[in-house]
Design goal:
By secondary structure, this protein is mostly helical. It has helices at 5-10, 16-54, 65-78, 84-91, 95-110. The chain contains 5 helices and no strands.
Length: 114
Amino acid sequence: MIYHVAEVVRAPQPDENHMSAVNALISEITKPLQQQMYIIADQKLLSQSEEQEEMEEIELRMLPKNEAKKLILDYIEKHPGAWTDEIFMDLKLDPILVFEVLRELERGIDRGKN
């Protein structure tokens, strides 16, 4: 229905029956959208829970730095070009320890030491 501005200004205020009918119509129109939103939210939650299930829980070992250095050097010899995360995941070492050892090894190589 199309109203002119003058008609809208002069229009009587809607009564409760009219408002409840409008609210029912709005609810009916938006129900499929709400259901679709719930489906999307459920799919998102499901994919997040699947990702969490796929994540592997690893118990990390804490070793003295010199022991970790030997393990890391051995690993690098067997796996040249290995990424840092591969090293700490495969050796199950604390990532911070691996970073420290790699930094020391890198500095030693830069200075010509090993």
